[in-house]
Structure formats: C-alpha cells, structure tokens
Hints:
Low-confidence stretches: none
Helix content: 25-40%
Number of strands: 5
Strand content: 25-35%
Structural class: alpha/beta
Distance between the termini: 28 Å
Shape: globular
Amino acid sequence: MIIILSTNGEISTGKVINWLCFYKATFLRINDHEFYEKKNLQIKFDNTGFKFQYDNDKNLLKKIKVVWFRKFGFFDHL
C-alpha cells in the first residue's frame, strides 16, 4: 500500500491518484487537515512502540510499502 500525505485540493496529487487508480494500486491519501478533524486517525509513540491506525485498521502499518510526502502542511501548524 502507498500512503500519500498531501494537502486538500493539491492538483498534482490528484493526477497521480488517477494514475494509481488506473493501475489498480492500493493507496490511502491523508490530507493534513485530517490530523485535526478526524477522530479515526491515530498516531502514537509510547514504550510499546509505534502505532498508526486509520479507520480502525489495526494492521495498516504492516501494509504500508511506500510513503509519498507531497506538500503536506501538517508541520505548519506546530
């Protein structure tokens, strides 16, 4: 699975997603605002390790093969 970290409305990301859909690639797009607005997105670091969960998929971290960091504005809000 490909994780795409982007910004809502980013045109180039949309074009790449069209290409991924055409080739039936498995991907998940997460826009920066979702870290603040969605309760179904969790990222945790603790003494047991790293946890990344989206839509209650507890095995998501094991499925990720590639992360594409495309104009992700999350760090602008820190």
